[in-house]
Amino acid sequence: MSRQTSPTAFAALLRRDFLLAYRRRAELLQPLLFLLVVTTLFPLGVGPSPQLLANIAPGVIWIAALLATVLSLDSLFRSDYEDGTLEQMILSGQPLALIALARTVAHWLVAGLPIVLLSPLLALWMNLPAEGMSILIKSLIIGTPVLSLIGAIGGALTVSLKRGGQLLSLLVFPLYVPLLILATNAVSSSVAGLPYTGQLGLMVAGLIGSLTLAPFATAAALKLSLS
Amino acid sequence: MLSVSELSFERYFEPVFEPVSFELSAGSLMLITGSNGCGKTTLLRLLAGLLEPSEGKFKTREQPLYAGHNPAIKDDLSVEENIRFWMKFMGTRKTGLGDALCKRVIEEIGLTPVAMQEGRTLSAGQRKRCSLARLLFCDEALWLLDEPYSNLDREGIGMLDRIVRSHLDGGGACIMTTHGSLRPEGFELQECHMISGRERYAGAAA
Fold it and tell me: Does the pTM exceed 0.95?
């Protein structure tokens, strides 16, 4: 009862995360540059034919977004784990799922949202037809939070390992498969003039599902990593 | 306030320390001594609830405050930002005072000159002081302090003794570990000497 209420703690954590992100802004830029570089490599590798690029554009942009997200996931809980912050947070009596959710929300805002904002540029580079553009952005808006939420579980599971990054990608990539299929299919369908609301609907379902369940799984994984 | 009976913890099927039993009442200080690796930190982590005991149990109605070796200080935040975050996050009724309390806490732990410096620039002793700041704004009754004197200078030790003294006077209780050289001075204290689990086997074999 003497404890700080949970919303206050949630806000304090978000505020701290933004401040930390601002102080380490160079670290935040790396996944985004990675995203740009990977997307740039495709025309060089598969040839600059506009039709070919337009065909593979949804897949390339989405896979690059997955890779960029996983790059930034490894550090999600690591520094808090190493300097003892996580330990103190668990002992603070605040619900651990709430802490996990706050970290995930902050991660999406500083790592996922920039991918969404960058996507129109990537779509132009990959010669994605105009009718696919808005669906690509929509699919990323719905999908990138899911990437952060599911990725947080992997980040929490591997936080106690010295080199957890590779294991983390092995753990979370299979879980991203349904999302990838739905998202790229929705974009391709919209380009082909086919209906795509079903795919987007399923993605929203995935978002709601992971938003309600993933923080608890992340909390359990964090507990496991600390004991 | 805390009663511990035959508490033990096993790691890889080997007891880390000999079973421990003691009672701690409000207003008292307990000193846990023992050589390196005899399980002092493990015992405190058990009492804090970070580990599950393998055998025995302990009873307490308090959620203890645990200050371990990891200072929980962010390198990229200043001393003031670090303390303010923890005040907001785990702070208590007292946080109502906000800025004034934060200033007073920093002054009390003697970090006013470096309040605006980033965590990475602090010396080991300053880090320790910064992590001990938590003692001043949380209102837990039971404190678990793991080697609180390490890295502190003479003045810092005096400061910590004062903080612990006023906590005990206010009806709190405190358990602290030490490996020998530094001890709280001028306190009436209970002492618990811990023996590593391995030593018993060594003794039995001899």
Answer: no
